[in-house]
UniProtKB/TrEMBL annotation:
This is Aspartate-semialdehyde dehydrogenase. Belongs to the aspartate-semialdehyde dehydrogenase family. The keyword Glycoprotein does not apply. Its EC number is 1.2.1.11. It is an enzyme of class 1 (oxidoreductase). One of its GO terms (molecular function) is protein dimerization activity. Residues 8-123 form the Semialdehyde dehydrogenase NAD-binding domain. The lineage of its organism: Bacteria, Bacillati, Actinomycetota, Actinomycetes, Micrococcales.
C-alpha cells in the first residue's frame, strides 16, 4: 500500500499504445491511487512518461518492480502476461490482464465494468481478464438489447484499426500511404500496390494495408476462423451468459489508424422494433451514445472513426430493422480501440478491484 493509505497501481506495458492511453486517462478519473508505477521491457526502462502532470521514470519489468503493487495492469502480449501475471499475484497483487491469456481459465472472471462489476472484486485466482477491443465495443449494446428481447443469434463484421498491432501497425500504414501517395492510378491493376511496397521491409500485416482491407485478424484457429474471431465469439457468449449462442464473426483489418467499427445483425426471440431499440440503447447504462438522425440530415447522422477517435463512449448508428427479418435489428458501432476498447476498461476494473 502506497504512502497515505492509497493503493499502488503498476502498469506493465506503460510505453505501449494501450499503456500510454491508460496513463492519459488518469486525470479524468477519481483520485484513487497513491503511487502509479510505469513498467516496461528493458528496452524502454529509463524513459520518462507523464503521469498526472509529473515525469516518472519507467522501470524494467522484474519481480522487484512488481513488489508492493496492489493492482498490476498487464497491457502486454500474451507471452509476457503468461509469465509475469502469476509472479505479480504471488507478490500479493490483483492482476488485470488484457492479453487473452486467462480468458478460458475457470477461476478468472471476464469483466466489463458496466455489465458485471462485482466479478472484479476479490477474484479467486487474483487475476481479472478484460475482453478484446472488438468485444468491448459491441457487448454493451448487445447486452442491453438482449436484456429486453433475448438474443437468439448474432452476425458481426468488425473493421479493425491498425493500432491493433501496436505502434508498429500505425507506422506501417503511414509508411505505405507515403509510398503510394501521389501515384495516380495505383490500385487499379493487379499486383501494382504490392510491387510498389516490396522494398518497405517486413509488415505486421499479411497483405498491404494502405488502399486495402484484409479479411484476417489474428492467427489461425479452428474451422477456418482466426484467433480474434474465436475470442469475440467466446467472450460474447461468456458476458451475455448464453453459452451456446450462435455467433458468426468476421474480423477485417482496415486502413484506419485508431477506432474500430462493427456491423451487427442481431436476432431476438421476440419481434423487435427500431424505435424501441434506440430507446433501449439510449436509456441503458452501457456507455453507448446513439447517433442516428439520417431521416432528417446526413450531417453527423451516424458515427465514423475519424469523428469519434479519442472519445470514451461507444457510438451507435444506422439502427434499423430490415424487411424480411422481423426479429432482427441492424446497427453500426464505432469505438476508440485504445480507450474504451482497452485502456478505459482496464482502468475501470483496477478501480473496482480496490
Amino acid at each position: 500500500m502506497a504512502t497515505g493509505g492509497k493503493p499502488t497501481l503498476a502498469v506493465v506495458g506503460a510505453t505501449g499504445v494501450v499503456g500510454m492511453s491508460l496513463l492519459s486517462l488518469l486525470p479524468t478519473r477519481d483520485d484513487v491511487w497513491g503511487e502509479i508505477r510505469p513498467i516496461a521491457s528493458s528496452r524502454s526502462a529509463g524513459r520518462r512518461v507523464s503521469i498526472l502532470g509529473r515525469e516518472v521514470v519507467v522501470r524494467a519489468l522484474s519481480a522487484e518492480s512488481l513488489a508492493g503493487a496492489d493492482v498490476v495492469v498487464m497491457a502486454v502480449p500474451a507471452i509476457v502476461s503468461a509469465k509475469w501475471a502469476p509472479i505479480a499475484v504471488e507478490a500479493g497483487a490483483i492482476v488485470v490482464d488484457s492479453s487473452g491469456t486467462f480468458t478460458h481459465t475457470p477461476q478468472v472472471p471476464l469483466v466489463v465494468s458496466e455489465i458485471n462489476p462485482d466479478a472484479a472484486r476479490a477474484p479467486e485466482s487474483g487475476i481479472v481478464a478484460s475482453p478484446s477491443a472488438a468485444t468491448l465495443m459491441m457487448v454493451g449494446a448487445l447486452h442491453s438489447l438482449h436484456s429486453a428481447w433475448q438474443l437468439t443469434s448474432v452476425v458481426v463484421t468488425t473493421f479493425q484499426a491498425v493500432t491493433d498491432a501496436g505502434a508498429g501497425g500505425a507506422l506501417r500504414l503511414y509508411d505505405e500511404t507515403m509510398e503510394l501517395a501521389g501515384n495516380q492510378g495505383v490500385g487499379q491493376s493487379p499486383g501494382d500496390v504490392r510491387r510498389m511496397l516490396s522494398d518497405l521491409g517486413t509488415s505486421p500485416f499479411l497483405a498491404p494495408i494502405a488502399f486495402n482491407v484484409i479479411p484476417w485478424v489474428g492467427d489461425e484457429a479452428d474451422a477456418g476462423a482466426t484467433t480474434t474471431e474465436s475470442a469475440v465469439r467466446d467472450e460474447l457468449r461468456s458476458l451475455l451468459r448464453v453459452s451456446h449462442l450462435p455467433v458468426a464473426v468476421t474480423c477485417v483489418q482496415v486502413p484506419v489508424v485508431r477506432t474500430h467499427s462493427v456491423s451487427i445483425h442481431a436476432t431476438f426471440a421476440a419481434e423487435s422494433d427500431r424505435d424501441d431499440a434506440v430507446r433501449i440503447l439510449t436509456e441503458s447504462s452501457n456507455s453507448v451514445v446513439v447517433l442516428d438522425d439520417s431521416a432528417n440530415s446526413l450531417d453527423d447522422a451516424w458515427p465514423t472513426p475519424v469523428d469519434v477517435v479519442g472519445a470514451d463512449p461507444i457510438f451507435a448508428g444506422r439502427v434499423r430493422r430490415v424487411d424480411g427479418f422481423p426479429n432482427s435489428i441492424e446497427l453500426f458501432i464505432c469505438a476508440d480501440n485504445l480507450r474504451k476498447g482497452s485502456a478505459l476498461n482496464l482502468l475501470q476494473i483496477a478501480e473496482l478491484a480496490v
